[in-house]
Write a structure and sequence with these properties.
Elements lengths: L7 E3 L5 E3 L8 H7 L19 H13 L5 H16 L20 H21 L3 H14 L8 H17 L18 H18 L10 H13 L7 H9 L2
Antiparallel strand pairs: 1-2
Helix pairs in contact: 2-3, 2-8, 3-7, 4-6
Length: 246
Amino acid sequence: MGSDTPPISRLRSGRTYWVRRTPPPSAEAESATASPPKRPPGKRFVEPYRLSDEQRAAIIAPLAELGVGDAESRELFAAAMEYDLAGCRDLASPEPQPPARKPKPSTEERRLRALAEAAQALADQLAGLDPKATERLTLALGETDRFKRSYGDDYLRALRCELQRVAGAAPKTETGPAAPEPKPALPEPARRFVLRAADAFSDCFETKASAQRGSAFLATLQAIVAVTGVRIPLEPRTVAEILAKA
């Protein structure tokens, strides 16, 4: 007795993938001819990431060009990627933009900041004068005053206050070098996807996934990113570190 159930291909790792060789029936026809399938108790069904024919062909293309596997094993690998992509749907959304960097200060801002620093430095020097230096300064100010006015501690205190006002009115100078932007941590779903893709690659083609530049595995990852937009690492060094910790 015949069966309409598509064949199952099982990888050596134990993961099972359904590979359709005919287009799936429409939703209306499926609901009219069959009742909803029962799910196994205790297991959670994960809806796979449905690749279009164009996406599937683009993922398989580098494998075919490099002579990796046959048509059936390449189709099986693409099916495996549909299930693995389902686990990192959030990585397919647009990446949040980093906050915009502050623009460099203009020439006027730099001059005002320099003036503020000079004013604050002069105020600090006035506050640090000893009594003899203070007396000598006030006598010199009186001698050079055309109106023969006298100067004392009250004048120096008022002068320091005005200098501090000038220092406070100018833009503040940013102290210290700008902190380097931290390297964003690799999302766990991205790391897990690379490992599962490497596992499927090894099972489907019976060859170990390699992160060397120009390798079939790395070329396949690049194709997956190109057609799905999923944010996974493509740098050979990063991919190699992930594979080494498997």
